[in-house]
């Protein structure tokens, strides 16, 4: 199992860590950039465009993809076949509850979890995408509005035993982040906070936070 969880920025140290997750050069890695969490807006936010450009500069074989759009266009879309064509599946920031809803609706949650646990793919995520690997998303409602999703789905992938808290130290989010941290810790859930210049790398049972 290999995961790379980001808050916002990508440093040179992060790039070196990413290279260790693949058996090919990063320029040759097939990268799927899932933008579904941004669907709370009728247009792609500037920060998402900037994020995609950052990742494309490292992974030129990046392809953008939206679960909701694929499902609405073709209810019989073969997500399993499509996902299997990529080495690195990365989920953008945005609203975590929009993501959990469409992951469940399309069945990609179960497909992706199996691929991660069998080392068929490296999982990556930023902000909402970094939160998703934990099992219980309900506490993050302090930060994201669940009502923006068609219905509330609180289940994440459940492949890690700690709750990631990205954007730690960012003034606009800090009060909400601290509330989420307290709620998790009251339930004896391990929390790992990480700032916008930090990332968390998971390789099997080894967890490392770095700048």
From TrEMBL:
Among Pfam families, the record links this protein to: Peptidase_S51 (PF03575)
| Single annotated GO MF | serine-type peptidase activity
Q: A Gene Ontology biological process annotation?
A: proteolysis
Q: Which domain of life is it from?
A: Bacteria
Q: Which UniProt keywords apply?
A: Hydrolase, Protease, Serine protease
What family does the database annotate? Belongs to the peptidase S51 family.
Q: What is this protein called?
A: Peptidase S51
Taxon lineage? Bacteria, Candidatus Woeseibacteriota
């Amino acid at each position: 199992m290999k995961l790379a969880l980001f808050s916002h920025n990508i440093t040179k140290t992060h790039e070196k860590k990413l290279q260790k997750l693949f058996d090919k050069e990063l320029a040759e890695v097939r990268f799927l950039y899932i933008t579904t969490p941004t669907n709370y807006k009728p247009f792609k936010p500037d920060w998402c465009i900037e994020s995609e450009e950052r990742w494309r500069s490292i992974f030129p074989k990046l392809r953008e993809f939206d679960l909701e759009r694929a499902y609405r266009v073709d209810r019989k879309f073969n997500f399993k076949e499509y996902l299997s064509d990529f080495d690195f599946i990365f989920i953008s920031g945005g609203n975590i509850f929009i993501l959990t809803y469409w992951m469940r609706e399309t069945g990609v949650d179960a497909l992706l979890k199996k691929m991660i646990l069998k080392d068929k793919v490296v999982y990556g995520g930023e902000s909402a995408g970094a939160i998703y690997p934990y099992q219980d998303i309900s506490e993050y409602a302090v930060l994201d509005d669940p009502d923006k999703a068609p219905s509330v789905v609180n289940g994440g992938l459940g492949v890690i035993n700690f709750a990631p808290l990205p954007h730690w130290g960012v003034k606009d989010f800090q009060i909400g982040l601290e509330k989420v941290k307290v709620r998790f810790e009251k339930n004896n859930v391990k929390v790992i906070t990480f700032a916008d210049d930090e990332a968390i790398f998971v390789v099997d049972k080894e967890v490392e936070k770095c700048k």
